[in-house]
Amino acid sequence: MTTDRRLPLSTQYVIRAPGYTINVDGYSGVSFYLLDAEGRRRHGKLYGGNFQYGIPSVEGASRWRTPAGFIWTGDNSLTIGADPARLRYTFYEDRMVFALTAPTDPTRTWKMWMGTFEGLGAPIHTGRQEQPWLPIVADWLFFPHPIYAEGILLFPPPQAPVSYCAGEAVNFPIKTGQEVALHFATQAQVDVLKQSGSLPPRGRTVMNSE
Q: Are 81 and 28 a contacting pair, CB within 8 Å?
């Protein structure tokens, strides 16, 4: 994880891992830039509108180009103060983990958005969806890419209904202490996940380096 201050008022935290590269905006604490392991762009356009876009953002607290109160860096993490919520990002070799942490109100349910993504295909999952237009409740969801072998593999909070929005974004409820994991994965890896209930052993955390 390195810090890029080359552009005035546009500091970025750049996390380079074997499985992905992600830039986090030093102003808002929201990511706007995501590459897969092969360096291919996997983020879409960010724009103002009815949605709280960013990877991730929290409705009513954290969104693209809305200033964060602070950003604390750790060896393999970022803590984002986005009053009234506090987010923690932890970076591993093969995945990103996002969570709401104390002192965020533990009695409140928030809506977390992830997007926009580039090429977010219709989700594959082993959960339940009562109607095609209703949210999906599943342990994991895989969103294939129309061209690339790796799609987006999302592990939402337990029993959280996930809404899929126009091939660009997803949203779901989340509470303090719950985690969300985001991977890039192939269909073959997802097939293993279906059979065994888990992915192959996960990577180590990504440490700071210059």
A: no
Count of residues for the chain?
210
pLDDT exceeds cutoff 50 at 208: no
Please check whether residue 12 is in contact with residue 3, taking contact to mean a CB–CB distance below 8 angstroms.
Answer: yes
Spatial separation of the C-alpha atoms in residues 49 and 92, rounded to whole Å = 32
**Closest to 68 in 3D by CA, of 29, 40, 35:** 29
Angle at CA 124, nearest 5°, toward 59 and 118? 55
**What is the spatial distance between Cα 88 and Cα 123, in angstroms, rounded to a whole number?**
26
| Residues of the domain holding 136 | 2-196
pLDDT the model gives residue 48: 58
56 vs 1: CA distance, rounded Å: 18
The reply to whether 207 falls in a domain is no
Provide the domain count of the chain: 1
pLDDT tens-place string over residues 1-39: 999 988 877 889 999 999 999 999 999 999 989 999 999
Asked if the structure places residue 155 within a domain, the reply is yes
CATH number at residue 30: 2.70.98.10
Is 205 a member of any domain? no
Reported as a single tens digit per residue, the pLDDT across 118-170 is 989 999 999 999 998 899 999 999 999 999 999 999 999 999 999 998 788 99
Closest CA to 71 of 6, 5, 153: 5
Inside any domain, residue 202? no
